[in-house]
Amino acid sequence: MRAPLCLLLLVAHAVDMLPVNRRKKQVGTGLGGNCTGCVICSEENGCSTCQQRLFLFIRREGIRQYGKCVHDCPSGYFGVRGQEVNRCKSTWLLPDPALALGS
After folding, report:
1. What confidence tens digit (pLDDT) does each residue in 38-51 have?
2. CATH of span 34-92
3. Is 18:26 a contact under the CB 8 Å cutoff?
4. pTM value?
5. Is there a contact between 57 and 68 (Cβ–Cβ < 8 Å)?
6. Phi, psi of 99, rounded to the nearest 5 degrees
7. Can you give the three-state secondary structure of 9-54, one letter per residue?
8. Are 80 and 54 in contact (CB under 8 A)?
9. Domain residues of the chain, as ranges?
């Protein structure tokens, strides 16, 4: 009696998990699935490590973030080369030169 019940619960659990796996793949592929130029790529978050000469651009959507390897940083960002990773940094974090001069 226990074996058929356990088998039934196992099958029900497996069927319950199928839609979750499909949804994760669609979200990952649609938003962060472009792994061109990546050394390490995740289906969920896109690139986390780029090839040596590329910049890692991380865009945020709500609490999620997705990485993409780019040759040039997009408008509003500048490239910072490092020993381990090259990143695109936002220009809005820089202090305004006019404020620094007291104008």
Report:
1. 999 988 889 999 99
2. 2.10.220.10
3. no
4. 0.58
5. yes
6. -70, -35
7. HHHHHHHHHHHHHHHHHHHHHHHHCCCCCEEEEECCCEEEEECCCC
8. no
9. 34-92
